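Fig. S4 source data, part A: sequence.
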Amino acid sequence: MGIFNFIGRIFATPLGFIMQWCYLLVNDLLKLPVSYVFALFAFTLITKLLLFPLSLKQQRSSAAMQAYQPLINEVNQKYADNPKKRQEEMAKLQSEYGYNPMSGCLPMLIQFPIIFGLIEVVYKPLTYMLRIPGEVMTLFGETAKKIIEQAGGSVNERYIETSIIELVKKSTAQFTSLAAPAGVTEAELAGYVSKIDGLNLTIGHLNLWEIPKLEWSAMLIIPIFSIVTIVLSSFISQWAARGRAEKNNQMQITNISMVLLSTVMFGVMSFTLPAAFGLYWGFSNIVVIVQALILRKIVNADTIKKQSEEKIAEKRRQQKEVKTVKVKDKAGNLTKKEMSADEMARYRLQRARELDDEKYASPAALDDEE
């Protein structure tokens, strides 16, 4: 988990600024209730808008990939018993036809650092949202530990900032009476305590920094919301990316498998991470559904697929087109031959292998020839 925490800390700083601005907008300017929930929704909208160009590119790539599917199936069937040759032919598809199996993965890859960064922001809202200085956080943290230990409790470092929030709201005087650390005035310290006291990370009596449990309670609504919306968003996104006449049973089976996998994965995360994450993920799925419907209007999958098929057909025609070329025989003499692009590629590969054999022939073999 060390690498994930490291990634989370890197992305938490810029994402914390976005959450801070969203919270200030809905809490201080708009004066909305459950402001942290609205801030999470605003955060989701902003991050999705920033990623929209990549999502648009992904939609177009998905539509184009449908044209390559027959070629991929042909290679898989033809070289089912020869993995090495199958890999070579797949590489050939990439170099000659522009097929790229990873072209639509970038938005998802970027989504993971956002998730890790947001989790860090949820656990440490005082550091990343309120931007309370490190020396003040150290003072507040030590004070919170003393209060918890004196009451016979134990301290969980992961929840130290949310513990500070709870203790400040219960006993503000214990924090305002502290001696300010070096470089911080008494007025500034009181201002930080006031900010913490005004921070609301709840929905009624539900604390959004707590982890939902598999037991009947109002908190259970949040992971259920997350799981239901991910199923809907997955199916609608796949439907939106397909052409109106597209029917591919193999792709449908693969897509269903991906939906099940992602549902299980994020379902588990919804019960192992704070409720705020499940709420964010549910909001994210709703935005994805709306975005998919918009992209289906913008991107004509049938047209893109047809253009890709025409490109593939033209490339194949060029490969089969016979041209007169000059080639060297084993004696080094130039001769003219009628060859297609495919035949020329095979000839070059064969000649390269022959040259390699000659260059790297063993000394023993050379002695025998002499």
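Fig. S4 source data, part B ends here. Residues 134-198 form one domain.
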